[in-house]
Specification:
globular; mainly alpha
Amino acid sequence: MNSTSSSTPLDGLIFGVCAVLGAVVTVACLYRARTTPTVANRCITTAFGICTVGVAFAIPAVASWAEGLTGIDNVAKLIAHMCAILWCASLQLTMVDIAYDPEYLRTAIYQRATVASVVLLVMIPLWLKANASGVEFTTAFAANVPVRVYLLVYLGYVFLTCCELAFMCGKSATLNWPERPWSSFGYGSSAAAAVAGIGYTASKGGYLLAYTAGTPWSLRLEERLSPSLSGIAIVLLFIGLTLPVFGTAFRTVRRRLSRA
């Protein structure tokens, strides 16, 4: 079991902080989803819960524990990647509920749920084919063709999802300004998170494609850049999706004080 041998101290720090933040935000969003049970609020809560689980399994110590418990190499990496796919899909459904007309909502939800399901169904057999003792699902093993294909499928889906989220969140930020500044800043932060996600996938995917072409850049640079961009994306998204909640609470408190 050595699936975490290529991890760096930066991985544990970044993903550990994100896991703690994710747990706190998930509890807050769960309360909101219970008091205001809309599709968007439920999807946001689901997204944060899934993200927290996925980020936790990306922590090297947790990954080693999971592999020792199950006896399966790279099981934590598979769980983390599956959570990332489901997280992206949940965020898509959230923004679809907010950004699209009700008559198109059902079709849009089915489309994105179908694409996410197909990607998961493709990733699992690819993981089974590539998984073996001593193999890691990281860019450090770009020479392993099955690993490279698996990662490119995963990164390709995340890249396309982040592109759509960046567009929809950016559009929502513009539409909410200046009438709803909290929501506008929240969507703006979410759009920035999606851009960081695009950078993350471009870093890892670009390295894999460059390796395939025989012209890869520094692996050390890629291994430092990717977790940093991933952590930035997660934190910005946590901020972005919770700002509207704080804005609503602030307006409620202000109304109550004005009536007193």
